[in-house]
Amino acid sequence: MKRLFYLLLFFSIVTQGQETASKELSYNEFLGYVKKYHPLVKNAQLELNKAQAELMMARGSFDPKIEVDYAQKQFKGKEYYSILNSSFKIPTWYGVEIKAGFDDNEGYYLNPQNTTPAQGLTSLGISVPLGQGLWINKRMADLRKAKMQIELSTAEVKLEAIGVLYDASLAYFNWKKNYEEVQLYENYTKNAKKRNAGIQSLIQQGDKPAIDSVESGIIVKNRILSLEDSKLKLIKAKLELSNFLWLENAVPMEISDELIPETQLENTIQETLKTNNLATDGFSIENHPKINALQSKIDILNVERKLNANELLPKIDIGYSYLSEPKYFNEFETDDYKIGLDFSFPLFLRKERGKLKLTKFKIQETEYILDAEKIQLANKIEAQKTEITSLAKQLKLIKDLSKDNQTMLQSEERLFSFGESSLFLINTRENNLVSAQLAQINLANRFYISNSELFKIMANPN
C-alpha cells in the first residue's frame, strides 16, 4: 500500500496541460483582420488613390478648352473700343493643337489690326511644333509618368502592407509563445504544489525527514515566481497584439482572456504565408514589388530623359488659321488666312545639357541599385529557406529531447516510489524537462519568425 501511495503522490502529469479553449484565434484569421481593417494598410492604399488622382490631372492637360476674352471702354459718351476674342482649343497627343475662334471688335479708337467685319470674324486653324514638343512635350511626359506612378504606387502599397503584416505576425508569435509558457508553468506549479503536499503528509507520518519540505517548498516558490513572470509577459503580449486588431470604421479590438492562439500553427503557417517549397519554387524575382518599384522609377526617369533631350532642339512653332465672315464660312477662300512662326534657341544650352546629364546619372544610379537588389533578394530568399529547413530539423530533435526527459522523470518517480531515489533527483529531472519544453517553445517561435521573414522578403501579401 505504501508503494501505491508513493506512485499516486509523485507520478506527475508531465505533458503540457493545455486546455482547449472555446475560442481560438487562428493565425490566418488574424492576418485577415489586419489586411482588411488595419489603418496603416488602408493608409498605404491611399497612396494608390493619390496616384490615380494625379493621372486624372495629367489627362486634364488634353481636355478641350473654351476661352473668352472681352474688353470694352467708353468715355464721355464715346465708345473707345469693344473687343471680343473667343476660341475653342483641342490639344492632341503630338503637340498639335486645333483651334476655332470668333472675334468681334469695334470702336472709334480700335487698333486697325483688330478690325473685323460687322458680323465678326471666324477662324479655324492648327498649330504645330516642328522642334521642341512634337514627339514629346510636358503634357505628354506628365501623362506617361502618371501612368507609371500608378505601377510604382501599387508596388509600394504591397511593400507597406507586407511591413504591417510582418510586425503583426511577430506580435502574434510573441503572444503564442508567452501563452504556452504560462500553460507550462501553471502545469508544473500544480505538480510542485501536489508534490509539496505529499511530502508534508509523509513527514507527518514519519516516513521522510523534515528537510525535504524545505526543498519541495523551494520548487513551489520557483514555479510560482516563473508563473507570475510569464503571466506579466503574456499581458504585455496581448496588449501589443491588440494594436493590430481593428474592426470596420476604425474600431480597435482588444484580445480577451477567452481567446487563445492557434494550437496547430506549426502545421499551417507555411500554407498561410505561402512559404512552402511549391510556392517559393515558382517565385520570380522579376515580379517582386521592390523590383517593380525600382523599374517603375527607371521608366519615369527615362521619360524625363527624353523630355530633357527634347529641350536641346530649337523651339519652332508654326500656326495657320483660315479666316471668314460667319455667313461666308462655307465658301472657302484661300487668300483669307493668318499664319505665324515662333523661333527660339539658346546659344550654349548649358541648362538643358546639365538637366539631361543629371537625369542620366539618376538612371544609372537606380539601375545599379536594381541590379544589386536582385542579387540580394535571391540570396536572402535562399538563406531564409535554408534557415527554415534547419529550424524544422532542430524542432524535431528538441521534441525528441523533451520526450526523453519526460521518460527520465517518470522513471525517476518510479524509483522514488521504491525508495531508490530522492526528491533532489526528481526535481533535477523535472527542471531538465521544463528547460527542454521551454527550448521547444522558443525554437518553435524562431521557426514561425523565420517563415514570416521569408514572407516579408518575398513580399506577396495576397
Can you characterise this structure?
- There is one protein chain.
- By secondary structure, the protein is of the alpha+beta class.
- 61% of the residues lie in helices and 16% in strands.
- The protein folds into two domains: 329 residues, Outer membrane efflux proteins (OEP), CATH 1.20.1600; 103 residues, no CATH class.
- The strands form three sheets. It has a six-stranded antiparallel beta sheet, with no helix packed on it.
- Helix 4 runs antiparallel to helix 8, helix 4 runs antiparallel to helix 10 and helix 9 runs antiparallel to helix 10.
- The chain is elongated and about 135 Å long.
> What is the overall shape?
elongated
Count of β-strands: 10
Distance between the termini: 64 Å
Helix coverage percent: 55-70%
- Strands of the widest sheet, in order across it, are 2-3-4-5-9-10
The averaged pLDDT comes out at: 86
Q: Tell me about the largest β-sheet.
A: 6 strands, antiparallel
Number of discrete domains: 2
For the record, the CATH architecture of the largest domain stands as: Up-down Bundle
